Amino acid sequence: MSSILTNTGAMTALQTLKSTNAKLADAQSQIATGKSVESAKDNAAVWAISKVMESDVAGFKAISESLSLGESTVAVARNGAETVTDLLTEIKGKIVASQEENVDRGKIQNDIDALTDQIKAVVGAAQFNGLNLLSGTEDVNVLSSLDRAGDGSVTASNITVNRQDLSTEVGRYGGGGNSLAGNLTAGAGTVGSAGSTVTLSATDAAGGSYSITLGKSTVTVAAAGSDADTEAAISQAINGLGLEGISATIDGGDVVVTSTRAFEDVGVSVAASGGAAALTADGGASATLSERAESVTFSASAPVNDGDSYRVTLGGTDYDYVAGKGETAEDVIRGLQTAIGGGGIEGVTTRAVQSDGAWTLKIDNAGADLGLAATGEDGGDASGGLFGLENIDVTTNAGADAALGTIETLIDSSISAAAEFGSAQGRIETQASFIGSLTDSLTAGIGSLVDADMEEASARLQALQVQQQLGVQALSIANQAPQSILSLFR
């Protein structure tokens, strides 16, 4: 049946043409924009995912800039610390040269002062965009990542770069009001040159022989005709060993062995053979000649906090060290060693050692007795990592000797600082490389979600253009069909 009111063929052709035109518009849009999902109406779920990922990519690009800034800052600090290490090594060479007495120590000291000024200049200039990692104690955080959890929450991650204070600041002692005296214990009230003694006693010298061992050296003495002759022979034999710092004298019929070795205990053992009467060392078969140095020991269980201040009083003079952030008992003991060494006290030498988990500062004095005490208090301002550098003075024998220990401690500090910065720079570089790769992966992932397949879109466009032409022709044919009805009325 034909109708002039309803042309179903035209309606079908029109709907087909509209569908073709819509698809053609979509294909043209994909070709023009390069995207298969350009807006939320194209595919809401995919569009939402792509936008979240695009925001992450934008964030990671900003993180790359942060890492580049952080890497440059740390690189400047590392170069500064390495330069300081080289300059300190030069100073060490000067100090070694000053150990000779027939050199012009005044000129050597001038060179050391010039190198010290150069170190201070390097530390002051080692900054990038106003941030100096060689001064102060506050850590610096470098933004390294944005971590998105499964619930959509985002947290920032940082790489913490620890400042390495290479200033020469003395620091400020205490002020917090809390005593730390229990953390630092002085072994005796004085440090002097008397040394340690062991008394050798023989009750009879009728015959036989006596064996005396001092450390790794042993002498054998035949019993003489009398106790006095035997004691004299023992004394002569001990002195004949030529052991540094060890001597024997006769006192009240006994042989008194004295050791003035500063940092070494010497074991003493005795024995009698061949019928000789017993020989004793302080009443027994063995004894110990103790080291002359006195000890200041830091408790193995005590924590070390930023601003903890410790003081050793020697001969009425206070020698202070104030711990910085992250420092240990070793740092405190070595800091006090540096402080005392910088004092240039004639005859005083020090050594830092660890025993049974505790760090100890041993102080020896070859001169008259000096009073010794130790205490501590919290709340101070930390001493600089090169604390003691400005006190190096090689113009005297005592100063030249003390400077050797001081410079070794300072070199260790600068090497540790450079190593810390090197590790931090390497980590930042690794993270920057990862962030670059991650950004590329995210960008590729976004592309796989929303980018158009241009080959497919091109082929589909040509097909749809043909369909459009056919649709127009079909509509034209459908619209001509009612014209045939007119012939029935002619």
TrEMBL record:
Residues 4-137 form the Flagellin N-terminal domain. Signal peptide: none annotated. Keywords: Bacterial flagellum, Cell projection, Cilium, Flagellum, Secreted. InterPro entries: Flagellin (IPR001492), Flagellin_C (IPR046358), Flagellin_N (IPR001029). One of its GO terms (cellular component) is bacterial-type flagellum. It holds the Pfam family Flagellin_C. GO terms for molecular function: structural molecule activity. Transmembrane segments: none annotated. Belongs to the bacterial flagellin family. Flagellin is the subunit protein which polymerizes to form the filaments of bacterial flagella. This is Flagellin. It comes from Hasllibacter halocynthiae.
